[in-house]
Amino acid sequence: MRQSMIDLPSRLLLNLEPWRNAAHWRIAFSGGLDSTVLLHLLASLAKSESLPPLSAVHIHHGLQAAADAWPQHCQAICNALGVPLLIERVTVQPGASLERAARDARYAVFSALTQTNDVLLTGQHRDDQAETLLFRLLRGAGVRGLSAMPAQRPVGQGTLVRPLLDISRAELEAYAQAHQLTWIEDPSNQDRQFSRNYLRHQVMPLLTGRWPQAQASMARSAAHLREAQGLLDELAQIDLAQANTPHDFQWLGLPSLELAPLAALSAARQRNAISHWLEAFTQLPDSDHWSGWTDLCEAASDASPIWRLANGELHRSAGRVWWLSGHWLRTPMIGADWQAPSSTLRLADNGRVMFAGHTPCGSLRIAYRQGGEVMHLADRGHRDLKRLLNERAVPGFVRGRLPLLFRGDELLAVANLPGLDGNGQDGWKLHWQPTGEDLGLS
């Protein structure tokens, strides 16, 4: 039997089947048609079905005078249905896009509220999905963007689920009228200065007037694109596995990839793999601004190219690409006297250093490379530090922040580099943890 021929409560239950064992279902309740129908459906089903505990949350943005009456309306609806309601007031930050700022404020609350094994339920429907596809198409989105809204995604420590994505607004209106439900009509939904409202009121009626199944077809296209994106993600994981090779600097605790396996791929596969990898770290540039990746790959072998992105930088060094952010982008202070060398010394913006084994005698200090340093090695005599770092293929971005141990002007040790990190005969080594976290040292 086609799903559209099944009654609405049964379709909703079918869509929510994977989450029947959740700890809690919380409905994002704006008071509009979609969330009102969702709330009523679930409250009704809870009388005959074994469902997780239900509650609702209403976000009061305070962006228009009419909204001041909405929390009271939502409270009355929830009271009548016996569903607990949490009302959260947020401050929307001013900016270029009021829609985006309101959404960010809303989802910050949702993320904070959604705990492990919780499900947040939102009321977006098939018409919304079609609008999202068209809106993103007009903005030049790629496959991921044109996948529109996923039926589920992580939020906070739990999961956001959209169980009405295969149900049309007309079906929701029919249900609301049949059950004599009342809902809020947001005046801003009529403001056609907002792009989505323009699409909804001006463009969609023209499309559906000519092609009555336009919204259903567009939602189906979004589903096809979502499946295609899933295949691209699987391909990215295969390609990244080839580049996620072991190396001598694991102790840095930095995300990195070997460049050679990536460079052997086609340009499209490179972008796909790197996009997938970087998505966990930063906002990605649009397709017109990927020249930074090309420049990084094609720079001369002795260069140290950098691709600057929204939340950090991608560096190429020692045959790998490295993701740097936070304190890695700040220059550490030049040095510090080590007053109590038996203890750990914390370094500004550069983690901490400590001794393993005995502590060398004398007045000690930690400093960073300035250029021209020379180190005496028992078996090789005096050697330039630059040459020693080159021999060990130390990544360029690490060289200026490797802790160097001095006694007076004598360079005693370079932290963490085997053969340079201490004195085996005297039984001590200098260890560096680049962050404040205990990452372990190899």
How would you describe the overall organization of this protein?
- It comes from Pseudomonas rustica.
- Its EC number is 6.3.4.19.
- It is found in: Cytoplasm.
- It catalyses: cytidine(34) in tRNA(Ile2) + L-lysine + ATP = lysidine(34) in tRNA(Ile2) + AMP + diphosphate + H(+).
- The chain has 442 residues and is α+β, with helices and mostly antiparallel strands.
- The protein has 3 domains: 3-125 and 149-212, HUPs (Rossmann fold); 249-326, 2-Layer Sandwich (Uridine Diphospho-n-acetylenolpyruvylglucosamine Reductase, domain 3); 335-433, no CATH class.
- It has 14 helices and 20 strands.
- A 6-stranded mixed beta sheet has the order 3-2-1-4-6-5, with helices on both faces. A 4-stranded antiparallel beta sheet has the order 7-10-9-8. The chain has a 4-stranded antiparallel beta sheet with strand order 11-14-17-18, with no helix packed on it.
- A hairpin with a 3-residue loop joins β15 (374-377) and β16.
- The termini are far apart.
What is the gist of this entry?
ATP binds at residues 30-35. With 442 residues, the protein is α+β, with helices and mostly antiparallel strands.
